[in-house]
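User: Some background: our group keeps a shared notebook of sequences we're curious about, and every so often someone picks one and asks for a predicted structure to add to the entry. Today it's my turn. The entry only has the sequence so far, pasted here. Could you supply the structure so I can complete it?
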Amino acid sequence: MVRRANRQYHDRVAGRYDQVYDTPYWRFYRDVSWRHLKAFLPAHRPVHGADLGCGTGWFGLKLLKAGFDVTFLDPSGKMLARAQDAVEKTGTRGRETRFVHGELEDMSEIADESLDFATAQGDPLSFCEDPALALRELRRILKPEGHAVLSVDSRVAGVRKLAENKKPDAALDLLRTGRTEWTGDGERFGMKMFDPDELDRLLVHAGFEPVSRIAKTCVVQRSNQAWLEDAQQRRKLMQAEESVHKLPQYFGMAGHFQVAAKRR
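Assistant: Of course. Here's the predicted structure to add to the notebook entry:
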């Protein structure tokens, strides 16, 4: 289950979360994520989707705009309240919304096979103590043939960062177990970082068929986000990003990766 420190941290930062991530890099990152995700949205309407680990609701709002009824779920009550405020501010476009205070490992408030589509952005699967259980729950709530698009933290990037910070024991532990600690802003809590093939195996075991995978991001990094300030150059960088981010050899450049999978 989501650790108490994780929940407390997200409760504490909920009021400034959008400001922290309102930068050229993170806007580009979200656009990359959405452009990959939208290929797996059901073509028919009406449909019911979910933004799992929704935070302040950015992806759920995109689903609303696309004509979905949307369930927003998050373990942080204050994050969920921010998502609800955002929906009230922008309007529901005539669609139904639901807000669930919960986590991926226990989505019992969501009925079996009630969702046509789900996404989990911001890497909530990485913060689960039992990712396999979370994936089984995800399969339970999705309809057969429904798609899920999941973003997770990359183990390669984690090992590289620990090595650069001269922490060999922590790097070796992460390499062996996939487990490490998230640290920042005075908080620390456990997390899981994935290898792409490892996540594919977990998805298959839970009853999914992986169908697509991208690294996020390869060409543009946070350290060079100034490249994105010119609109024409940003378009060129998006084209470059999308030309390489499905290629396995580029996954080592990215801090995260995103997987689309179909429920069997």
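Suggested note for the entry: Strands lie at 47-52, 68-74, 97-101, 115-120, 142-153, 179-184, 187-192, 208-216, 256-263. The chain has a mean pLDDT of 96.
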